[in-house]
Request: fold
Amino acid sequence: MGLVIYLDGSLVPEEEAVVSVFDHGLLYGDGVFEGIRAYAGRVFKLAEHIDRFYQSAHSILLAPGLSREEMIRVVVDTCRANGIRDGYIRLVATRGRGDLGLDPGKCPKATVFCIAATIQLYPAELYDKGMAIVTVPTRRNVPEAVNPRIKSLNYLNNVLAKIEAGLAGVAEAVMLNADGYVAEATGDNIFIVKKGVLYTPPASIGILDGITRDTVMELAARKGLAVSESLFTRHDIFIADECFLTGTAAELIPVVKVDGRTIGDGRPGPVTRDLMARYRDLTRAEGYPIG
Ligand code: PXG
Reply:
């Protein structure tokens, strides 16, 4: 693709952007990441993504070796080097190069890289017509082990759920937590609308505290919609008026069928469509200038 990648202090051609086979990000999934979007020459919610990146790193005792300001520069400079005005940015910090033991004490320096490219997660048609999803057998990781609020490089939990969705012939999975409550999708948070109230599971049950989730709750409140972070079950999705998923990459995507049950009238609902439009407008109205 001919991209220019930021890797450990330099911008290099993608062919040269390689990490060691002894990097603990690869050997153990020991690291953290962010997925960020740019719209119309501005990086959307950059401060929020940088905050979460450092929170994830702090939680796993990983020091990326750059200040927040330097990390913001890395993101912006990588966008600029690739001529990205609208795109998707992946920022990663791994424990770095160590030996074949898992002791992170043997890794003197974190590996930091940033990719600025583009992404399309789901076909455009699904945004119009809505998608079908299924609940999968793999439960979301329990927060007492590796908390899903840490955006770590250990995504096997989500990858397994994604594979199970594919086996069921759909593009996305709903994951339940260990208690059987609805948690989130593999790379997206979940919302339902019932009788004019917007519901989403609380972050404490073991989900990623999504930045799009936060933004949508804010947009909903601004339009006078009641928002409730509360536990709900598959049954609540089945009998919901509307359902949609949120994520930086996916943005807002309507869900019209879950486990074979049609949601509402089987078409993206008015609240979902209105929030999609408001989200779209917001992404074009603010953000950190790429320059
Ligand atoms: N839950 C999980 C588990 C995620 O990984 C979200 C929710 C949404 O969070 P934000 O902050 O983006 O609103 C994510 C992030 C993919 C992919 O290919 C998706 C994410 C990250 C990396 C890859 O689907 N979503």
Q: What stands out?
A: The pocket of PXG is lined by residues 35, 121, 158, 184, 187-189, 208, 210-213, 246-249 (CB under 6 Å).
